[in-house]
Specification:
single chain; alpha/beta; FAD/NAD(P)-binding domain; Enolase-like, domain 1; 7-stranded mixed beta sheet; 5-stranded parallel beta sheet; 12 helices; about 25% strand; globular; flavoprotein
């Protein structure tokens, strides 16, 4: 009901925005002409409503028309005004920038405000290839700047300059005024925006300082600086403790095996990856990790982290009093959406993130949110969701910017997708690569013995396939998964249970399409 009222309010806001924006347009055109004559280009705070309707008040303006009406030069960055501002310098920001460039709307118009020291990059590398030992070909920048993760161009700092995009490095937003459409960065820089895209992502959840969460040798991974610090510690470490049995914990532990370190994973659940893996599936992966020397402490809670005489972390003390020695600790216990300072100005907060509609519009006109921080309508499953995954970051960025710049009015219809790739360093005896699509609800049917393939199917009470997981598939097999999860075909459970191989099971599922 609340969301329906919000939708009705957004429709009213749209109409009001059009009327007000049309009234402002005449004055803006006069000032724009003067600015162009002075060689300064032009800037317009025109609302998203007017940009969608076009300057004619009814016909949708093309990108080419907008470029003719407003020839913007790089000199526009000499003042405070920015037509488009992206706050956040992560995955989604990089893909949003690419979409602006593809539509010819970046040069002199777009500014990215980032807390990082480097341009946007493919963040998943930080817990995978970036942590490999030096002799095992670790990933390093500029090798994984966006958008190489999806087969696109590598967008280095020079790429942003060549495309006329201003990037403010290590200068995050610290204050925001929605009424005046103004941002203030930590360096004191003031920016006025026409449209604001919030792409702030998440921050790593941290252990409290009072229990040793900030001791030297305790690491959290969210950016390149974090990963560099961890790599430095791994090079000196002998015993490491990983706290958390989710994605971060499992990927970091796998990388640590490449360093031949004594590695222990501690988590409170009964098995690893509890939000996705079944107990049976988890057991297969746990056994593989144990074969690589990793130890598990399950069902355990951290009481505190102790420091040695040098002040550096020396052990993890559990609630039951047991002690696990460690000279390096990596904490992977989840993440929190980075909604500050925007939560104080009226944007709706849902499931921890900034609530948006299917076009990624927030409850405040001219403000959008994308990527991990956005709580959006998950159309397939009729619920509001926040997805912390690079695939959603990429797709939400593209969808949002295309909606902003064109006449596109198609609702975002995301299919949940997760994956992991570990033990891929040189010399590894077994590489792991799995993918999951859909929703992990209903009865599970597991096929295969992990040699190397294994598949799991989630089937609801109507015999519809809701989700599918596959380890070590071929490209053709992996490409089948989203088709199955999207179509949700009715499958013959008896046949699926009697399948003698993963290949047979996938063929049975394929025949149901």
């Amino acid at each position: 009901y609340k969301r329906r009222l919000w939708g009705e309010a957004m429709t009213s806001v749209f109409s009001l925005e059009v009327a007000l924006a049309l009234r402002r347009k005449a004055a803006q055109m006069a000032s724009a002409a003067a600015a162009a004559a002075a060689g300064m280009g032009c800037y317009s705070q025109t609302s998203w409503a007017l940009r969608r309707l076009g300057a004619g008040g009814g016909a949708l303006a093309s990108a080419a028309t907008r470029r003719r009406n407003c020839s913007v030069a790089a000199a526009v960055f000499d003042n405070q005004n920015r037509e488009y501002v992206i706050v956040g310098g992560g995955n989604a920001a990089g893909y949003a920038a690419r979409t602006f460039v593809e539509h010819g709307m970046a040069d002199g118009r777009l500014c990215i405000v980032s807390k990082e020291a480097v341009p946007p990059y493919e963040r998943p590398a930080l817990t995978k290839g970036y942590l490999f030992p030096p002799e095992k070909k670790p990933a390093r920048l500029p090798g994984f700047h966006t958008c190489v993760g999806s087969g696109g161009q590598r967008q280095t700092a020079e790429w942003y300059k060549e495309n006329g995009i201003e990037v403010l490095y290590e200068d995050p937003v610290e204050a925001f005024d929605g009424k005046t459409q103004t941002l203030k960065t930590s360096s004191g820089k003031i920016l006025k925006y026409g449209s604001l895209i919030i792409s702030t992502g998440c921050a790593a959840a941290r252990l409290p300082e009072k229990i040793g969460g900030d001791l030297p040798g305790v690491h959290y991974i969210r950016d390149v600086a974090d990963a560099d610090s961890l790599v430095s510690s791994l090079g000196k470490a002998k015993k490491i403790v990983v706290i958390g049995g989710g994605y971060i914990g499992m990927e970091v532990a796998a990388a640590a095996c490449g360093w031949n370190l004594d590695t222990t994973i501690i988590f409170p659940e009964d098995h690893i990856m509890p939000r996705l893996f079944t107990p049976s599936l988890a057991k297969k992966y746990e056994e593989l990790y144990e074969q690589n020397g990793v130890k598990f402490v399950k069902g355990a809670l951290i009481d505190k982290l102790d420091a040695g005489s040098d002040g550096r972390v020396s052990s993890a003390i559990l609630k039951d009093g047991s002690v696990v020695e460690a000279d390096t600790v990596i904490v992977g216990i989840g993440a929190k959406p980075s909604v500050s300072p925007f939560e104080a100005v009226g944007v709706n907060i849902e499931v921890g993130g900034i609530e948006v509609d299917s076009m990624f519009r927030t409850s405040i006109p001219s403000i959008f949110a994308i990527g991990d921080v956005a709580a959006f309508p998950l159309k397939m499953y009729d619920r509001i969701a926040r997805v912390e995954h690079v695939d959603h970051a990429r797709k939400s960025a593209q969808h949002c910017i295309e909606t902003l710049l064109t006449s596109q009015a198609k609702a975002y219809d995301y299919l949940p997708y997760f994956y992991s790739r570990v033990f891929e360093y040189e010399g590894s005896s077994r590489k792991i690569w799995w993918q999951f699509y859909g929703d992990n609800v209903g009865e599970t049917i597991e096929v295969g013995n992990f040699d190397p393939k294994i598949a799991t199917f989630w089937i609801d009470s109507d015999s519809r396939l809701k989700g599918v997981f596959l380890e070590s598939g071929t490209p053709e097999e992996f490409s089948l998964l989203p088709k199955l999860a999207r179509s949700q075909p009715i499958v013959d459970k008896a046949k699926l249970k009697s399948a003698t191989s993963v290949e047979d099971a996938l063929e049975i599922a394929r025949s149901s399409l």
